[in-house]
Structures are given as C-alpha cells and as structure tokens.
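Possible race condition, two jobs.
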Amino acid sequence: MSTEDQSQQPEPVVQPEQAADAPKPEKAPKPEKAPKAEKGVKPEKGEKGPKGEKGGKGEKPAKGEKPAKGEKGSKKAEVPEKAEADIHPRLLVKFEQEILPALAQQFQRTNRLSLPRLKKIVINMGVGAAISEKKYLEEAVDALKLIAGQKPVVTKSRKSIAGFKLREGMSVGCKVTLRGKRMYEFLDRLISLALPRVRDFRGLNPDAFDGHGNYSIGLTEQMVFPELNPDKYTRPQGMNITICISGSNDDESRELLRKMGMPLRTA
C-alpha cells in the first residue's frame, strides 16, 4: 500500500475520556405495582366486584320461598305434610277400631280373620240404548268413572238375540270393581250421601242376599250421587251394586252392614 493511499484515509475520531469523578446518570424509577388482594378474601355474596373482577354469585332464595322473576329456584319441590298412602278412609278406620271388636264380642270369636269383612264392590251399568246410539254408552262410562273414581270396563254381549237387534260382541254396558281404600270410600258416600237422596226412600231390603253373604242393591237413577252434573247427564241411567263379603253367611253379613250404617229395613 502506498503512502498516498494511507494519507487519504480519514483519521479515527478519538472521544475524550470521561472523568473518573463524573456522576453516573440516575435510572428512571419503576412504576409502582397495584397492591394484591389478600389471599382467601372473597367478595361478599350478592355484591358485584369492581370492573374487571369477578363478583360472588347471587344469594339463593330461602327454603319454601318462590324465587323472584328471572332467578332460578331450587329443583326439589316441597314435600307435602301427609302423603296419600297415610290417609285412611273414615269407614275403614271405624271398621278396624269399632266394628271388628264388636263383632268378635257378639259372635264370641277370638280369631279376627274368621269375622266377616268386605272383599270387593262391583258396580254394573246396563245400557240397552247403546245398540242404536253409541253416545249413550260413552255418557254412562263417563258417569261411572266420576262415581267410582276408577276407569270402568266396557262389557259386550255374549250371544245374539234377534228380538232385541243384538249381535254377539256388541258393547252394551260397563262395570267397575273396587277394592281396598276406594271400596270403603265409595261405600261411605253411598250410605251417607246417595241413599238419603233417593226419592221416597224407606230403607233397603234386608233379605237381598244370595245365600253366600253377598248383598245386592239396585238404583234406578244415577243422579243420586252429587258428583254428577245434572245439566250434563240428562238421560236417566240405573245401576246394580253388589257388595261381596268374605268368610260369612247371610246373618253375619247383615250384622256387618248394619254396624257400618247401611239403612236396612227392620222386619
């Protein structure tokens, strides 16, 4: 490299050395951090936290109170005070507490199972007009359902009779069989409500037994039951009621019905 080229190159700039005693520039102060919330402290229920923070959930309604509009209530419904299984008909309670001990003393028996007791009650409606008009049968089924509190069964003819224009298998009536609590409830309504509403009622026949302790009653009008609306059921319709009593003869069944309140005529 020639001396001329070296002379043409720029000389390096030499910075003056800083004095040893010169003070150093101060650093900028760091921004203060927001204070952290104490660990374990949560906002109170029902109060919303500040913006950007999650607040607590709304308070639940007290037990038994209905929630306000827009709030969700508890899923479990209130438990009724008494279940239906704990409710006993008054005639059943009377039968177990009063009638059975009285019959045991009258017949001089220590075994309660040998005493007469109700087995079932069968209610039957024969609707002969249903051969020409089916709506009469539908009305009878609805009426029997209200009277008994149970859906009835439609009965059909077993053979053909040309004189009545009846063919085998035609629907000509309905029936229902009651047992248990419904049986005692129906018998209680029959004795205390329906029979006193019969026109010119003078008592039931005390000899209407079949020889095996079963008793039968015939009603010519279904409107003696107050459950039926007279404006809806205008057509007169009768029924047969059979009370089946187990473990007894006619005399024992008659005593049982008298103690239950059945208005039997005296001889």
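Job #2 (started ~2 s after job #1):
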Amino acid sequence: MPRRVVFFGTPTFAVPSLSALLESADQVVGVVTQPDRPRGRGQQVRPEAVKLIAQARGLRILQPEKLREDAFLSAFQALEPDVAVVAAYGRILPTRLLNLPRLGFINVHASLLPRWRGAAPVHRAILAGDHRTGVTIMRVVPALDAGPMLASETVDIGPDETSAELEARLASAGAKLLVATMSRMGEGPLVETPQDERLVTYAKRLERAESRLDFAGPAASIHDQIRGLQPWPLAAALLNGRRVLFHRSQIVSDILDAGSPGTVSAIEPDGIVVATRPGAVRILELQAEGRQPLAAAAFVPGARLVPGSQFHPLPLT
C-alpha cells in the first residue's frame, strides 16, 4: 500500500528528490515550502523551484510563516502523512511537528555527515579544499542535522568543479538514495547509525563579505574561493577601481612565482594568468559588475587588460 508522503523543500536542490518521489510507489499528498519572497536584482516576488513543480502537478501547497502555528499544524495533520521528507527546506522543524507522521521525518543532506552540518554544506566543502563529499539520508531530530544516519553515498569533487555544478550532482545522487531508502523502509525498520559528535563540522550560511578575493594567498585557496562561491556571492576584486566577479579558474601548476600577488603575469588564448602567493591561477571566466559573464578572451579587450595590470582586494567593511 503506498505511503502518504508530505515533502518539505524550497530551492532547486530539492527538485530531483520531489520528482523522484512523484515517480515512486509512494503518494505525495502535499508540499510544504517557504513563503514567496522578493528575489533577484528587481526584488520581484517569485515562487521557488519546488513550488513551481508542485503547482504543475496539482499538489496541495502549504507555505507557513511559522511552523508552530496551530493552523499550519492542523493543515499538515489533515494530510494524514505516514512520513515526511525534507530536502533543503531551510528551517529547523519543531518537535511538535516532527512527532506527527507515524514514520517520522527523514532528510536528504548534501554532505557526508557529521561533516558539514548546516546551511551551506556544498560550498563549505569546496572552500575547505575537500576532495570528496556526498549525500546522507538521516532521521530528522530537533537539533541541526544531528539525527541518526539511514544511508550515505560518497561523491568525489572534481578539481575544477564549482559549487553550483557539485550541488546539481549531489541533488541527483540524493534523490536516488532517497528512493532506495524509502523502498527499504517499506521492508521493515531501518538501521539507524548515530553520528560521531567528535567529527562534527558546521557549514554556516555564506555571507557577502566572503566574496572579497585577495590574491595574496596560495593558488589552491584562491581557486577554491572562486569555485566555492557559486552562484552567490561570487569571488570579487577591483580592477582599475571597478568590481570584477570571478566565475571559473584553474591552478597553474608549473608556476611557483609569477610576481606580485594580483598582478596579471600573462594573457593566454584561454585565460588570464594572475599571480598568487605562492603560485598562480588562470582565470577562465569573469564579469565586470553589471555586465554579463565572459570568457577571458572576450573580457580582455573591453577591460584593456595587459600584462602588469593589477587586481586589488575590495575594501574591508
């Protein structure tokens, strides 16, 4: 007999999990997602990705401002869920809510717990220089991402992979692992493995101030910052007094000393070589603020970039 599932999720990361559940043997009877909020440069109020999918499939949608409100809890309970599934919903769930489904809540988390509990696990893994990460299906408890683990899968991080690219791969891996876990749940109780609290690290939310790029650091750290801050806030520096955003880079492995940090040491057909300390990075794609992102070769003429040009850190705020 199909289980009645209520899905909690908001951004694009959650879409593969919702789509997989909709194609599974279980029945998605409702979706809980964040209220519509102003987004983007124009601050227009637009629905997030999960709501769009739910609308297209004619699902019951709940968008509570507060999860402890009696009206929401009553509406949730009226859906008669057997189990609830969470994927990047964006809020801590109160105990009263967690106790309502007979099979509880399970969560799709984009890291190998207990490493990178919290809001930005994909970005923090790349920013830290991790070579691998993964997805974990866990039981939801009141504490942040602290519940016992039901399943996990390791995913290698590509040396030049951005956080946006990695997040898409993890979303797909998480959806497959979720459906497999739900299938095993139907066969009997799952093995629940407690997390090792000695190994916990936290993935705090990204802040705009983290975009400040100072080339006076190792090439690997600069490269990780550029690829780890996608699609927001993006690594940024000043060129001729104007803010420039960096989208894609590589480590230049055969250069140990390219000059003063931030100096353009060479302009190549496919990139701009910029000195770090030590080493150098090759900038492949960048963007003058307010303009479209460009491949390095297209950016150079408009920026009048030449060897010896200098990228400077943004002012400290």
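The mean pLDDT is 95.
Logs attached separately.
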